[in-house]
Amino acid sequence: MAKTKTYLEMKKKMTVSKELMAEAKEFAKVKKLITNALKAEPKTVPEVAEMLSMPSSEVLYWMMTMRKYEAIVEIGRADEDGYYKYTLVKRGK
Predict the structure, then answer these.
(1) Going by C-beta distance under 8 Å and a sequence separation of 6 or more, which residues neighbour residue 58?
(2) Which tens digits make up the pLDDT trace of 11-25?
(3) Which of 4, 48, 55, 90 has most Cβ atoms within 10 angstroms of its Cβ?
């Protein structure tokens, strides 16, 4: 008869890679910075990048991740350079 594994035995084998943990920590840090940057008023990716002294490509990656998970949304139409302004999503409590 096969032995049934207990929850604790299975939990010992479940691990999260160090790379994934590092990525999650980085996302939490950058998300907080972007959130603080967007609190006062909506901004474009280049505006946020300049404010945070980060490359636009990196800010774009993190802001699109936030958009995917509905933490921010674009508003209005794109400006003359083709950039949308983004604002925080208001969550009801």
Answers:
(1) 49
(2) 777 777 889 899 999
(3) 48
